[in-house]
Amino acid sequence: MRGRTLEWGARTYVMGIVNVTPDSFSGDGIDEPDLAVAFAHTQLERGSDILDVGAESTRPGHSPVPAETEIARLVPVVAGIRGRSPSAILSVDTHKNAVLRAAHDAGADLLNCVWGLPPDVLETAAALQIPVVVMHNKVQAHYDGDVMDEVLSFLEDAAGRAVRAGLPAEHVILDPGIGFGKSADHNLHILQQLPRLIALGFPTLLGASRKSTIGKLTGRDPEDRVYGTAATTALAIAAGIDIVRVHDVSQTKDVASVADAIVRNWRPSGWT
After folding, report:
1. Is residue 182 part of a domain?
2. Domain harbouring 146, CATH code
3. What is the Cα–Cα distance from 75 to 197, expressed in whole angstroms?
4. How confident is the model at residue 58 (pLDDT cuts 50, 70, 90)?
5. Which of 114, 99, 199 is nearest to 148 (CA)?
6. Do residues 46 and 16 touch, judged by C-beta distance below 8 A?
7. pTM score
8. Is residue 89 part of a domain?
9. Per-residue model confidence as pLDDT tens digits over 108-142
10. Which residues make Cβ contacts (< 8 Å) with residue 34, sequence separation at least 6?
11. Which residues are known to be catalytic?
């Protein structure tokens, strides 16, 4: 992609968040396109392997926005990033088919879908042959049995549908959805059982950055949860997670470099 290959298992890839919403839970939303493009460039300079651009807040209690509003927010930023950084790998965070098509036309490379993989979105992703991040989500944090059992069943079904639709298995990335339709205890249970997610055999992503569970454990506001997030990142890498989606890219790159050296025997360029 964009002249590069993301080799699963070689090291951990960092997905830097770019929120172009006025109501992001972490307070980092930028609703002015030029400023958002500049921030995206900063996230690349900090070491993002992938940029994830989203134009609809997914915080608890958020108000959904129509596709037209999401497109109006998203497309100028995606196009601006693509114009300024032609080789950047761009992910678009949406679950709407029209938004995916518009973002792809503007230069997006892959889809990050927080509501699984709706049939129309899967059809478009398969037609465009773009990689997908499939996330587990739920309206209410209620589970009849073990939360991880349900998450894995959901993701395995979605991944199977994606492969049958024509996407290569290595382009189907599974995300357990920390903080989406789950209580704090659910989130911790999932984080304890990440090796079960890895065992499904698909590439994986974890998005625990600044989440409320970290706030409950540390008593800190979203912007001060970098160390709590770092703990989830290091433990996720130990479990075998391939991508971590984060707000604080520079700090996460340091965590990943050390953890990858220990877990995956990775070494930086020029190591002697």
Report:
1. yes
2. 3.20.20.20
3. 33
4. confident
5. 199
6. yes
7. 0.95
8. yes
9. 999 999 999 999 999 999 999 999 999 999 999 99
10. 80
11. 211, 245
Domain with 138, as residue range(s), is 13-263
Total number of domains in the chain: 1
CA 35 – CA 152 distance, rounded (Å): 38
Cα(253)–Cα(263) distance, rounded to whole angstroms? Answer: 15
Tell me if 8 is assigned to some domain.
no
Strand order in the sheet with 50-54: 172-175, 132-135, 110-113, 90-93, 50-54, 13-19, 243-246, 205-206
Does residue 268 belong to any structural domain of this protein? no
Instruction: Please name which of 39, 72, 38, 37 lies closest in space to residue 55, comparing C-alpha atoms.
Output: 72
CA dist., res. 194 & res. 148, Å (int)? 9
29 pLDDT more than 70: yes
Nearest to 112 by CA among 82, 90, 80: 90
What tokens were used for 21? 């919403």
